[in-house]
Amino acid sequence: MDMWNDLLVTGVPLLDKAIRTVCVYLALAVLLRLAGKRELAQLTGFDLVVMLLLSNVVQNAVIGPDNSLWGGLFGAIVLLAANAVTVRLAEAVPLVGWWFKGKPTVLASHGAYIPSALRRLGLRRSDVDQAILQQGGSSVADTQSVTLEPGGALLVRLRPEEENASAGDMAEIRERLDRIERLLREQASRGENTKGQAP
């Protein structure tokens, strides 16, 4: 009987647990927003340690003196619901979306880094260079712009002359070549016909 009591009877009222969970969720969302997009862009070993410790530090603030199965499941449900509401609210209300997501930050423009943006976000040029290489460029000089998006993704736009041809581009080139060959054949056959008609 004691086992069922430990599993199902919560140590704190459910309203208390719901308030704790929502408060911790909002506080962490604000702290991560203030920490910057770099935390989301690339998790270094140190960042991973901080994230793991952070989850352990806030655990007691969420569950309180409650180790029951039902209490843990209820906390997880409230956490997922708070996240779903926040995401929908951020999409529906632009000001809320800006506050929780932020806006893109331009790291490089017209083939040159913006040092102040890199410094502000705590990004190294070598990290951005790696993203440029992965997207087909050889250096920042090949880029039109490099942007750190609110979700932490690095978006690299190569200069038009540096971009790879797409399958659609190749199909269009083939079609044009076929047309040119057809025209040349027609012109050659007309030339042979006029030679044959000459007295």
TrEMBL record:
Top-level division of the source organism's lineage: Bacteria
Subcellular location field: Cell membrane
Keywords carried by this UniProt record: Cell membrane, Membrane, Transmembrane, Transmembrane helix
Residues in the signal sequence: none
Topology within the bilayer: Multi-pass membrane protein
Major localisation: membrane
Keyword Transmembrane helix: yes
GO cellular component, one term: plasma membrane
Domain YetF C-terminal: 99-162
Entries under InterPro entries matching the protein: DUF421, UPF0702_alpha/beta_dom_sf
Family (UniProt): Belongs to the UPF0702 family.
Protein name, entry field: Uncharacterized membrane protein YcaP (DUF421 family)
